[in-house]
Design brief:
By secondary structure, this protein is mainly β. It is built from no helices and 11 strands. The radius of gyration is 14 Å and the shape is globular.
């Protein structure tokens, strides 16, 4: 079983920065996961934000966050950070971290991911 835990959400004003973190914790210590961030705003469908491959050499960003958000893997295995700069009110959402064991499917597809966290709230006021 894999437990995905997010942290670091909060409330900020537009233009500010925030970093959210995620750890995919597994008894299978040898397993490596591709990690992705999704978000869901009230009344909207969940959308992909960013993702990173198991070794960090490949990343994906949604057009809406390119140039503002940066995804990176942490030194600890199966940890990931999402640095969010120049935040906008439309970035307000619950941010979910997800872990994918297989390499099948695009980073942006939620079906690629096997394990999901409970989400962390990010609120950006104007």
């Amino acid at each position: 079983q894999v437990q995905v835990v997010e942290s670091g959400g909060g409330s900020v004003q537009a233009g500010a920065s925030l970093r959210v973190s995620c750890a995919a914790i597994s008894e299978r210590t040898a397993s490596s996961y591709a990690l992705g961030w999704f978000r869901q705003a009230p009344g909207k469908e969940r959308e992909s934000v960013a993702a990173i491959s198991t070794n960090g050499d490949s990343t994906y960003y949604a057009d809406s966050v390119k140039g503002r958000f940066t995804i990176s893997r942490g030194n600890a295995k199966n940890t990931v950070y999402l640095q969010m700069n120049s935040l906008k009110p439309e970035d307000t959402a619950v941010y979910y971290c997800a872990a994918a064991l297989s390499g099948l499917g695009p980073f942006s597809s939620s079906s690629r991911y096997d394990y999901w966290g409970q989400g962390t709230q990010v609120a950006v006021s104007s």
